[in-house]
């Protein structure tokens, strides 16, 4: 592409409402323009990137055996009534009436339409499994559209739906989709994790979110540095330490800690590391108080606590009065030693392997040193009740947990029979019996991926595209071409040669001075920049710089092709 | 593609509301499924065809220098108010309110949005000309959606918009688009014509419709059999005959035609061909009656008559009383000889070259024979006032006029400054002066092309795709593969070899009997069918049949590849 024939429009000023890097950079690079709240025009530059994403998604869906189709974006109310979602979907559903006063919505998703298609189209188990997908514009009427195309109202989505006779078949296709999604995000050059989004209610591996790792992400994640393991931070499992609990060596000793209540205070006062202290929290359980014990450097995870059999759905801290009544001490001095039998003691896995530890004395102004489980303190149950921390062992046994944030760009889901049952979508099995189908659905936010990639990869100068998403892989820039025919000829010839070698190349023939020209190429994130200058031509070299290089260097034509090959 | 992995669903029953061949065949072939009135799901088979069309359109637009972008489908009312089209567009505009009670519409076209984009984006004449396009889902709330995707409410359209400093620049891009459109429809294998749709009011070549020739078309066309010439039948010019008017040889003679009033009656009664009779019609002009004379075998063209300077905008036949008062005779016996001087005599070009002709006697029950212009009858003006007929010379001098019907699949339009002026879209010229831009718009109905192609090319067995639009070029069918491993292996091997040769091939591995299998392949219109059977394998041949062949024939593998290469 010759840039003079392309509408590139980088800008300096960015509206104040562009809060995050990707939004700012997409506006500055001229990839998108705002039409109205949550509605964006994709300029030629922006669309070029989005199409690259779209094509990778399509190729991998086809490779995975899905077939592409296209359903209407405008959907009749009747179908949404069948699933009850006409009301339940809420304000995000953009509703409209046609000229005959019939109700429709702009499809935010297509479960109803595809299930209607399937119940008309599929008659026999022999037609199953079937996995169909589309790449289509969707609309969700967000209350507060923001962050540019990251949370736009109109967006491009790949949505796939699979139909099955059995849950096993659904599981197989789900796994195929999991693999396809992993290939897609890998090919796009994104650091990502598939996060188990299982609600626990259904059981099994019913849902995964694919998250692109980026600081601006909305979701807090825990992930392994050496494996695909990832989870929402609230759900990440904290493994039991690999070590056994040592045998007691110290005697239980009550010590005075007159004003020391927090772990930091106690541990500094007694000269004991926080990892050797047991922190005890009393909460209201289903039947009276429950004691939760974690290591001094750990935090209670309320989501995990809520899943304990002793706990109601919403856990609540015990009041100071309750604590005083039950233990005789105030918060800050509570410990597992000598607690009333009626209080279950739930000990976190990491706290359970401590010996000779420090804990509250259940008497104001005192703690115990040399405390030991079993000998001095009951354990009702050992459980995972703490938040994971950076440096924990990964629950899959591979690598170390890192904490970070993620942007959800994909979601795969085992829907089971929910929609098929509501809408009566069944097929005849090999016995001639009508059976409700099982369904899966698999979404990818195509337009959102563009923004997520920028969040993950940018610097002060602009976007740093992964090669697969770059609008062009290579930019050929010419210095002073108007006054130097040799330069423009050499640049043109290089551009032609690169293009013919199948390398997606941009020729910057706008005749800008080097400064603004280079700034544009960096802003729009072209991975490889080649400069053609008269000085270089004399030396028989081009100046080359990868977007991520600190310095440019001179290379011969052969070296350049080898670099880009 | 292996057909067993593809959701092909041909059907026998077609809903009664499918009135035309393309609608019926798209349903029978399983290309589309109706979701609601004017809303269709494109099945994998249908989408495959539509994508082929889309890709050709995109390639040729890019080749022609247009750059692709993507504007929102949901558009704010404010922009439509600026051009006055929020009201003027009428009921086809699907309006909606978002959760904040703001008004939007589902874009039926994008002049407002693109002009808004241009006025924000374009500042200098140096950025012009710019030609942008998108391929996008549109919505028009048709009063009576019908004919399947031919007149659906939701449809896929390619719309392009160009911006210019001068009308000359607009004209140049218009010509480029004309050529690009011609290439697109030629590549798609369609018989089409570009029809001058100039209203005459603006002047110049301001608008062309691209029409696919098909009997089911809504528009009556006249087109050359030997050139690209075409026009709406009402506007097609009838040339003057190449011959000069012969000199008179007969004497003007009044003959009795007591009950013969029509051309057929007079010509039979007098034994003179209709081509030697002049038919005279009296109409109300701006100032009194006007006589229109055409050859007996021709018809008056009211559109052309309405453009005569003597005529008001709406022409009207003279009443019998008026005719009698002016001529002394009743309709059926009127002729140009001896008409009052106050009545202008407008003579069609073909009638004007007649000599020794027959015409009405302006006296009930009589006609003249041997009548001649000038000698016997005044000519106020010779003009083109008749309808063209099949067999006329083409107005461009090349070939012969044929009459037929067309389906509009593309429209190119010089908008001039209409939208740019209404919305204040200007750029600075080289003098630093603000100038309103000139615009062109260029649409193609991508989904409609699919239906139009079927209307143009089908038979009793089903669709007959042009190669460029076929879902697959070749179908490899196997006979009795389950009981004959050699057949399935040979078919598989042939399928692989064809695919590797870059030939888009379908392997029908469903295991159907030959009858239903062949019927499906004919219905879905695959251009080339290859049958692998044990008998053929023994003979070292495959059975080959082009979709348009009457009979199948046996070919060797080499012959087959040569055929398909």
UniProtKB/TrEMBL annotation, chains A, B:
Its main location: cytoplasm. It catalyses: tRNA(Pro) + L-proline + ATP = L-prolyl-tRNA(Pro) + AMP + diphosphate. One of its GO terms (molecular function) is proline-tRNA ligase activity. It holds the Pfam family tRNA_edit. Keywords: Aminoacyl-tRNA synthetase, ATP-binding, Cytoplasm, Ligase, Nucleotide-binding, Protein biosynthesis. It comes from the Bacteria. Residues 38-466 form the Aminoacyl-transfer RNA synthetases class-II family profile domain. It is found in: Cytoplasm. Homodimer. Consists of three domains: the N-terminal catalytic domain, the editing domain and the C-terminal anticodon-binding domain. Catalyzes the attachment of proline to tRNA(Pro) in a two-step reaction: proline is first activated by ATP to form Pro-AMP and then transferred to the acceptor end of tRNA(Pro). As ProRS can inadvertently accommodate and process non-cognate amino acids such as alanine and cysteine, to avoid such errors it has two additional distinct editing activities against alanine. One activity is designated as 'pretransfer' editing and involves the tRNA(Pro)-independent hydrolysis of activated Ala-AMP. Belongs to the class-II aminoacyl-tRNA synthetase family. ProS type 1 subfamily. NCBIfam families: PRK09194.1, proS_fam_II. This is Proline--tRNA ligase. The gene is proS.
């Amino acid at each position: 592409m010759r840039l003079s024939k392309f509408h590139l429009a980088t800008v300096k000023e960015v509206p104040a409402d562009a809060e995050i890097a990707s939004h700012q950079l997409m506006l500055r690079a001229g990839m998108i323009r705002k039409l109205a709240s949550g509605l964006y025009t994709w300029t030629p530059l922006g669309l070029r990137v989005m199409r690259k994403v779209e094509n990778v998604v399509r190729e991998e869906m086809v490779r995975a055996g899905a077939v592409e189709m296209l359903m209407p974006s405008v959907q009749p109310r009747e179908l949404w009534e069948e699933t009850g979602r006409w009301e339940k979907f809420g304000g995000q559903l953009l509703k409209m009436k046609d000229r005959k006063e019939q109700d429709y919505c702009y499809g935010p998703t297509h479960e109803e339409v595809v299930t209607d298609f399937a119940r008309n189209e599929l008659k026999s188990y022999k037609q199953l499994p079937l996995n169909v997908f589309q790449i289509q514009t969707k609309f969700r009427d967000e209350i507060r559209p923001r962050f540019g195309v990251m949370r736009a109202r109109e967006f491009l989505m790949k949505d796939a739906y699979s139909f099955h006779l059995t849950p096993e078949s659904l599981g197989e296709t789900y796994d195929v989709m999991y693999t396809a999604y992993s290939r897609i995000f890998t090919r796009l050059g994104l650091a990502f994790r598939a996060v188990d989004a299982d609600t626990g209610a259904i059981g099994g591996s019913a849902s995964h979110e694919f998250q692109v790792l980026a600081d601006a992400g909305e979701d807090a994640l825990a992930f392994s540095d050496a494996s695909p393991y990832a989870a929402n931070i609230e759900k990440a499992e904290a493994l039991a330490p690999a070590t056994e609990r040592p045998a007691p060596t110290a005697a239980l000793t009550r010590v005075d800690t007159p004003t020391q209540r927090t772990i930091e205070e106690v541990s500094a006062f007694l000269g004991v590391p926080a990892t050797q202290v047991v922190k005890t929290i009393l909460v209201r359980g289903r039947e009276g108080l429950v004691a939760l014990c974690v290591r001094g450097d750990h935090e209670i995870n309320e989501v995990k606590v809520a899943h304990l059999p002793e706990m109601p759905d919403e856990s609540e801290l015990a009041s100071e009065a309750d604590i005083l009544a039950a233990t005789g001490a105030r918060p800050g001095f509570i410990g597992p030693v000598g607690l009333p039998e009626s209080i279950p003691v739930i000990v976190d896995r990491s706290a359970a392997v401590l010996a000779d530890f420090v804990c509250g004395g259940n008497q104001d102004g005192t703690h115990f040193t040399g405390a030991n489980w079993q000998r001095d303190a009951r354990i009702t149950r050992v459980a995972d009740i703490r938040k994971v921390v950076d440096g924990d062992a990964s629950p899959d046994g591979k690598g170390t947990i890192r904490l970070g944030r993620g942007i959800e760009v994909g979601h795969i889901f085992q829907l089971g029979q929910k929609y098929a049952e509501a809408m009566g979508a069944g097929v005849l099995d090999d016995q001639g019996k009508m059976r409700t189908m099982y369904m899966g659905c698999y979404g990818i936010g195509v337009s959102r991926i563009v923004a997520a990639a920028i969040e993950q990869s940018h610097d002060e100068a602009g976007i740093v595209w992964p090669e697969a998403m770059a609008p062009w892989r290579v930019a050929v820039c010419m210095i002073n071409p108007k006054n130097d025919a040799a330069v423009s000829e050499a640049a043109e010839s290089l551009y032609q040669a690169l293009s013919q070698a199948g390398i997606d190349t941009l020729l910057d023939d706008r005749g800008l001075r080097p400064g603004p020209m280079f700034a544009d190429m960096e802003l729009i994130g072209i991975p490889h920049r080649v400069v053609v200058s008269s000085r270089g031509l004399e030396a028989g070299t081009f100046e080359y710089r990868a977007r991520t290089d600190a310095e440019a260097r001179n290379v011969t034509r052969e070296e350049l092709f080898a670099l880009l090959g």
